[in-house]
Amino acid sequence: MVVGVLQMRLLVREAQTLKDKRHVIKGLRERLRHEFNAPLNDIIAAYPAHLHTNIGDPAMRGLGLGGHMMRALLDYLRQNGVKGVHL
């Protein structure tokens, strides 16, 4: 658990905005409360598609690209009968 706390402290320190800092702190509290302890195999069985989100170049934000990509992904998954996606 010490490693997790140190990682979260680093994330809080590196967060650019107060909103980001609050988000990281909320995640730490949820982790410490063991709110996300579902076995990964169960999650993958229920939601076999997996999506990683990354923070991109700030100049590319606000153009609607993320929404277009999400809609394209979800359309593809529906068309191919994938029953769920986890982020």
Pick out its properties:
single chain, 87 residues, mainly alpha, two-stranded parallel sheet, flat
Task: Note down, in words, how this protein is organized.
The mean pLDDT is 77. The protein is flat. Helix content is 57%, strand content 5%. It contains four helices and two strands; from the N terminus they run αααβαβ. With 87 residues, the chain is mainly alpha-helical. The chain has a two-stranded parallel sheet with strand order 1-2. The chain starts with a helix and ends with a strand.
**CA gyration radius, whole angstroms:** 16 Å
Structural class: mainly alpha
Counting DSSP E segments of at least 2 residues, the number of strands comes to: 2
Largest sheet: 2 strands, parallel
Question: In DSSP terms, counting alpha (H) and pi (I) runs of 4 or more, how many helices?
Answer: 4
Task: List the secondary-structure elements in sequence, H or E.
Answer: HHHEHE
- Give the overall average pLDDT: 77
- Residue stretches low in confidence (pLDDT < 50, at least 5 long) are none
What is the strand arrangement across the widest sheet? 1-2
What portion of residues is helical? Answer: 55-70%
SSE topology:
Elements: H1 2-14, H2 18-32, H3 40-46, E1 49-50, H4 65-79, E2 85-86
Parallel strand pairs: 1-2
Helix pairs in contact: 1-2
